[in-house]
Amino acid sequence: MKFYFLTLLAFLLFISCQTEIDVKIPTYYNKIVVEGYIENGQYPVVSLYKSMPYFSTMSTEYLRDSVVIRNAKVFITPNGGSEHELFINPIWNPRWDYPLLYAYSTQTLVGELNTSYRLRIEWNNKVYTSETSILNTFDLDSVGFVPRFGHTEIDSIANLRIWMTDNGQGNNYYQFKVKIHCKQFSDRLWITTIPAAFDDSPFKGQSFNYEIIRGAPSTVFMPEMTERERHLFLRGNYRTGDTVFMKYARLDYSSFRFWNSINGELTFGQNPFMSPTPIISNIKSNTGEKCLGVWCGSAAKEVRLILDTATTKTSPTSSQPKSDWNRQTPLQCQTPP
């Protein structure tokens, strides 16, 4: 009898703890997302999207018809210059099969060093503005492949390291990006490194070295891959046979604030255990609404490196050499032709 009484009591306690929760998802309102870049020697590129509800169904058709903004008016005015209108064009394939590869651009304007640029976007009866600057470029002291962590020699896998000296003048903000071309895949877009941007506060006016870790590329519409192919595609280091293109740039402060605030999202992705961090945009609206995205000016240079086990030394780049370079064990490095 006692057993039945305890069983009944446990059952009543169990059902009494159940509470029906009715979760109401708030109405979602699309916001404009701006991804704009201007770089020395390059045409400006501005991609415009509508933000997406969290539970949206992803497809090329949805992106094309509901996300990519194709009916905006986009203008750029350099400091002391005339206004240039940008028009939507394909970055690569002139088809809408690849909606994320479309952007507003113009061939009437090329980015110049030490120049500021004002962006104006007219869309949906609103005006969005921003301003950025292309500052001056900087040089690296050295760059090359080095043994990965925990190893004393380079095998088939290596890390990429740069040596540089901060000029100590004012506040400097740096950004590195990479592309990998190898047998398995070729990056079409520049991949941000980890962190996405950093300032010179820890080493102002000093020489330092820094590991260039490739961030995770976008997996949107990633083709079917085996587990090994996926591992190679998402890797942060470099393998024998890789041709690595590295872009190193100085940013202005407003661009740095955006990239610095987005570091956590780029590093940890959609980790459910990570608290969301506010992302600081430099886009403003005439209505005062919160905007998403960035208008980023960068003073950039590029270098090409080839990880080739046929040689065990590094040819100097235009910014080399350094007297202590041979302390490392880098492999072949080449500057762009």
Give structural attributes.
single chain; 337 residues; mainly beta; Immunoglobulin-like; 15-stranded mixed β-sheet; four-stranded antiparallel β-sheet; 5 helices
Give the topology, please.
Blueprint: H1 2-16, E1 32-39, E2 45-50, H2 60-67, E3 73-78, E4 84-90, E5 102-105, E6 115-123, E7 126-134, E8 142-147, E9 157-165, E10 173-181, E11 191-194, E12 198-199, E13 207-211, E14 213-214, H3 227-233, E15 238-239, E16 243-251, H4 253-261, H5 263-268, E17 284-285, E18 292-306, E19 333-334
State the name of the first-level CATH class of the largest domain: Mainly Beta
- DSSP E strands, number: 19
Report the major sheet.
Answer: 15 strands, mixed
Overall structural class, as computed from helix and strand content, comes to mainly beta
Q: Mean of residue pLDDT? A: 81
What does the overall shape look like?
globular
Radius of gyration from the CA trace?
25 Å
N/C terminus separation: 90 Å
Q: Topology as H/E string?
A: HEEHEEEEEEEEEEEEHEEHHEEE
Count of the domains: 2
Number of helices: 5
Indicate the low-confidence ranges by residue numbers: 311-337
Strand content: 25-35%
CATH topology of the largest domain: Immunoglobulin-like
